[in-house]
């Protein structure tokens, strides 16, 4: 059997496991609407997705993942509750020196269930842990909801909070904004010069820029400058709050210990209390599902670079001793995505994906090591 056929057989085995766990197999089109993906992720998606153009459907992208089309399908006509599984290729651009494939198979499992989100989180994690258990992978968990709640708890303007929330998944940009909002670093020199000139009057400033080019008109430019003025006049985020946020972002502990620390932190940022309580309910559900909660690693920043539609519990399964290897499996909760694509409807949802070619390779490694 060729490697490609063997990987396809491994994928079929994984999907059969999820089907036996109650999931309905579903399909998704290879070509997805670029407009939808751009609305969700912004122009950043162009750096990762392959695009094409259809005379009738407009700009399209080769499927970068399954979650968006599965959510669209469910929100259009899915029953409640629902569990789905899928198998197929996804396509991601890679750097020239990357060893990672630009086309590979994914097998996934998604749960849409509003009855008990904590139990659904535990169900998905426990199933992935079970099916991957022969490989001896290292699990890791996180919680984007904790980070979002911490940002919402800051004593600063709503505009600044929205900016920080928007860049939770872009750690470098997030750090630049946080340092600026706390006063640890000054605003860009160009912005300072612009605001100084704006003090003489916005109409004169806009007129000095010459004829209008592009889609932005004078009103939009004026609004943007006023927003910059309001931000410059805002009080900086307090040192104590910034230090607490730094502690959260660097938190790496076992799940039990992390929860204790976050519970203490919530005393200083009480707006986090609901997220910490949700974390406790998930821990109880994981324990009831047979997961060793006491030994489960937790990283508060896990998932910030490659899971941008997740907004709650996140997890991954990694091959220890192989740092260049992508995660074998990843997943998490994406309630906000359902709201965005639901057309007025919403439902809590959680799921994950496995890369069968990595599972196949690791099975081969184990077989060779045992021979």
From TrEMBL:
<dbReference type="InterPro" id="IPR041715">
    <property type="entry name" value="HisRS-like_core"/>
</dbReference>
<feature type="binding site">
    <location>
        <position position="106"/>
    </location>
    <ligand>
        <name>L-histidine</name>
    </ligand>
</feature>
<protein>
    <recommendedName>
        <fullName>Histidine--tRNA ligase</fullName>
    </recommendedName>
</protein>
<comment type="subunit">
    <text>Homodimer.</text>
</comment>
<dbReference type="InterPro" id="IPR045864">
    <property type="entry name" value="aa-tRNA-synth_II/BPL/LPL"/>
</dbReference>
<feature type="domain" description="Aminoacyl-transfer RNA synthetases class-II family profile">
    <location>
        <begin position="17"/>
        <end position="325"/>
    </location>
</feature>
<dbReference type="Pfam" id="PF13393">
    <property type="entry name" value="tRNA-synt_His"/>
</dbReference>
<keyword id="KW-0808">Transferase</keyword>
<feature type="binding site">
    <location>
        <position position="92"/>
    </location>
    <ligand>
        <name>L-histidine</name>
    </ligand>
</feature>
<dbReference type="GO" id="GO:0006427">
    <property type="term" value="P:histidyl-tRNA aminoacylation"/>
</dbReference>
<dbReference type="InterPro" id="IPR006195">
    <property type="entry name" value="aa-tRNA-synth_II"/>
</dbReference>
<feature type="binding site">
    <location>
        <position position="110"/>
    </location>
    <ligand>
        <name>L-histidine</name>
    </ligand>
</feature>
<feature type="binding site">
    <location>
        <begin position="65"/>
        <end position="67"/>
    </location>
    <ligand>
        <name>L-histidine</name>
    </ligand>
</feature>
<dbReference type="GO" id="GO:0004821">
    <property type="term" value="F:histidine-tRNA ligase activity"/>
</dbReference>
<feature type="binding site">
    <location>
        <position position="304"/>
    </location>
    <ligand>
        <name>L-histidine</name>
    </ligand>
</feature>
<feature type="binding site">
    <location>
        <begin position="309"/>
        <end position="310"/>
    </location>
    <ligand>
        <name>L-histidine</name>
    </ligand>
</feature>
<dbReference type="InterPro" id="IPR004516">
    <property type="entry name" value="HisRS/HisZ"/>
</dbReference>
<dbReference type="GO" id="GO:0005737">
    <property type="term" value="C:cytoplasm"/>
</dbReference>
<dbReference type="GO" id="GO:0016757">
    <property type="term" value="F:glycosyltransferase activity"/>
</dbReference>
<keyword id="KW-0328">Glycosyltransferase</keyword>
